[in-house]
Design goal:
The protein is of the alpha/beta class. Helix content is 33%, strand content 22%. 38% of the residues are buried.
Length: 236
């Protein structure tokens, strides 16, 4: 993705993006029950690279599977492109880990923009200290082989009840993660930037004692005029 678009998405919240997508008829884009392992104070932005897990079957998921260079989980860690976000479909089941600190560290060292699972991470306390943004449901110590079989790479998946197609744009903030279809990401980003500017203005007005009605949303000319003046004064 181009740097200008990335920077726009770095400066807007998932909540604002969710409203921009809602205006376009998309109501199910925020990944449910997924939160940052630790808040980073900055956004995670990048195209989706996906990994799909299915329920594990005991004869196919012994520890010896990790010795195979073709194991999909290991391959995902070594092939997720720089600047992308690895998104894992763990069937909303955090009873066994989707990955641990060694694999997430490797993703970080390879320049991956972030990692998301609707399951859990083992070694979550260590992952929390890494610079890479990571999102999950809760810590989970058992190895993924206990319940999950890594099967497919870079195919359409479901993550936290949201469809994720390879190349969809993933944005995470200190609250949650949203999935934006590629074909509308530019317009959604532009609108979110505009919405953010007005919301920042509104916060200032509310802190000065302004009432919400007529201000948010803007239905009074006086607020529109004040916003235009604020915007010019603040370079927004």
């Amino acid at each position: 993705m181009n740097e200008e678009l990335r920077q726009k998405l770095m400066g807007v919240s998932v909540a604002t993006l969710a409203t921009a997508l809602y205006k376009r008829g998309l109501r199910n884009q925020v990944i449910q029950d997924v939160r940052p392992v630790r808040q980073k104070g900055r956004n995670m932005v990048g195209p989706a690279y996906t990994l799909r897990y299915i329920p594990a079957r005991e004869d196919r998921n012994q520890l010896s599977e990790f010795r195979k260079p073709t194991h999909p989980q290991r391959v995902a860690v070594e092939t997720c492109p720089e600047g992308h976000v690895l998104v894992m479909d763990s069937r909303k089941d955090p009873r066994a880990a989707s990955a641990g600190d060694i694999l997430v560290t490797r993703l970080m060292m390879r320049g991956v923009a972030g990692v998301v699972t609707d399951g859990g991470f083992r070694d979550a306390a260590t992952i929390a200290e890494l610079d890479i943004p990571a999102y999950h449901t809760r810590p989970s110590s058992p190895t993924n082989l206990t319940l999950h079989e890594a099967l497919d790479l870079n195919v359409p998946i479901g993550c936290g009840d949201v469809p994720v197609f390879p190349g969809d744009i993933i944005v995470g903030d200190d609250d949650s993660v949203i999935v934006i279809p590629q074909n509308i990401v530019a317009e959604a980003a532009d609108e979110a930037v505009e919405m953010t500017a007005y919301e920042d203005f509104v916060i200032g007005q509310v802190k000065q004692g302004a009432a919400i009605i007529g201000l948010y949303p803007c239905t009074k000319d006086e607020h529109a005029e004040a916003f235009a003046e604020w915007r010019a004064a603040n370079g927004r």
